[in-house]
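Team,

Forwarding the record for the chain on the shared tracking sheet. I've put the sequence and predicted structure together so nobody has to dig through attachments.
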Amino acid sequence: MTTEGTPAANTRSDNEQTLKRRSVARLAAVQALYQVEFGGGRPDDVVDEYLSHRLGAEIDGQRMADPDPDFFRALVRGGTGRQEELDALLKGSLSKSREPSRLDGILRALLRAAAFELLARKEVPARVIISEYIDVAHGFFAGPEPGLVNGVLDNLARHLRPSEVA
């Protein structure tokens, strides 16, 4: 049994904090990718703006959670820097009647961030990535979009990481 204040409890608490900070980074990365695409900002400028002024800030009397800044930066840079590659992967996981360019902007940003993470962040289990981005989708959409995210990411994970999702 682990009690608060013991090394094992502190390690568990640190791990939970890291996971929470990564969840915040994923949500913020989706928003930042959307801003880069539709606001025309440079990825590094948008990242700096988020880290300096938006994330961890107080909004309407409530302090926003801090993200993992390195993880956030990697997701935004990867989602923008490898956009063509990610869109090609996504196209292969979407139904034939859908093109990534025709998806809702937030949905496209979400799928790009998730596809990048599946492709480049092998230390994060595929099932964790899928679950996290389904949660993000629920934050933005009340319709069928979270189901679409689940299907696309499951298909993509089977292609990119077959040993994890066999």
